[in-house]
Amino acid sequence: MGRHFGDLAKIRHVITYSISPFEQRAFPNYFSKGIPNVWRRFKTSVFKVAPPMVLMYLTYTWGNHVHEQSKRKNLADYENDQ
C-alpha cells in the first residue's frame, strides 16, 4: 500500500502548521491566567444555568412528593366500614 493512515488523501490548498512537542509548554500560565479565566466564565454563566436547574429540581421533588401522597390510602374513606 505504501501510504500511512494520515496520508490516505491528498488535500490541496490546505496548509497545516505544527510545532515540536519539545518546543511547547504543557501548562503555560495555568495559575496566573487559567484559574481566573475559569472563575470569570463560571460567574458569567451561573446565573443563566442555575435558575432553570433549581426550578427543575423543585418541580421534580414536588412531583415525587405528590406521587407518594397519592399512593397512600385516605383513612377518612374507610372510617364507617365494619
Automatic annotation (TrEMBL):
<comment type="subunit">
    <text>Component of the ubiquinol-cytochrome c oxidoreductase (cytochrome b-c1 complex, complex III, CIII), a multisubunit enzyme composed of 11 subunits. The complex is composed of 3 respiratory subunits cytochrome b, cytochrome c1 and Rieske protein UQCRFS1, 2 core protein subunits UQCRC1/QCR1 and UQCRC2/QCR2, and 6 low-molecular weight protein subunits UQCRH/QCR6, UQCRB/QCR7, UQCRQ/QCR8, UQCR10/QCR9, UQCR11/QCR10 and subunit 9, the cleavage product of Rieske protein UQCRFS1.</text>
</comment>
<dbReference type="Pfam" id="PF02939">
    <property type="entry name" value="UcrQ"/>
</dbReference>
<keyword id="KW-0496">Mitochondrion</keyword>
<keyword id="KW-0679">Respiratory chain</keyword>
<keyword id="KW-0999">Mitochondrion inner membrane</keyword>
<keyword id="KW-0812">Transmembrane</keyword>
<dbReference type="InterPro" id="IPR036642">
    <property type="entry name" value="Cyt_bc1_su8_sf"/>
</dbReference>
<comment type="function">
    <text>Component of the ubiquinol-cytochrome c oxidoreductase, a multisubunit transmembrane complex that is part of the mitochondrial electron transport chain which drives oxidative phosphorylation. The complex plays an important role in the uptake of multiple carbon sources present in different host niches.</text>
</comment>
<protein>
    <recommendedName>
        <fullName>Cytochrome b-c1 complex subunit 8</fullName>
    </recommendedName>
</protein>
<dbReference type="GO" id="GO:0045275">
    <property type="term" value="C:respiratory chain complex III"/>
</dbReference>
<dbReference type="GO" id="GO:0006122">
    <property type="term" value="P:mitochondrial electron transport, ubiquinol to cytochrome c"/>
</dbReference>
<dbReference type="InterPro" id="IPR004205">
    <property type="entry name" value="Cyt_bc1_su8"/>
</dbReference>
<keyword id="KW-0472">Membrane</keyword>
<dbReference type="GO" id="GO:0005743">
    <property type="term" value="C:mitochondrial inner membrane"/>
</dbReference>
<keyword id="KW-1133">Transmembrane helix</keyword>
<keyword id="KW-0249">Electron transport</keyword>
<comment type="similarity">
    <text>Belongs to the UQCRQ/QCR8 family.</text>
</comment>
<keyword id="KW-0813">Transport</keyword>
